[in-house]
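Chapter summary example: a protein plus zinc ion.
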Amino acid sequence: MNYKTIYSAANATEAHLIKGLLGQKSIEVNLMGEDLSIGMGGLPTDVMQVKIKVNEDKFSKALEIISNYEQLLKQPAQDGKSWECEECNQVNPETFEICWSCQANHLTVA
Ligand SMILES: [Zn+2]
């Protein structure tokens, strides 16, 4: 099977959020780079980029899901569904319980 890189997540948290989104549509995901961040000592995992790979067959479908996700991120918090992180002011979709950017917990910072 051929896997193609579809997205470079800023950190492992974002990678797992996207993996979850794609998983809901039965799209299998390979995360590259995540393992590297373990055991390197000193480098926190959240500064490591994680490459998200999907099967070529699912690439266009996955691209659609990821562009929807990016649209969500760009939306202002005024729709009542997204929430703005109090730590870093990034906007998160309502389905995210932790900030994709700084990993602050929405439920505890709110
Ligand atoms: Zn944040």
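Key point: The pocket of zinc ion is lined by residues 85, 87-88, 90, 99, 101-102, 104 (CB under 6 Å).
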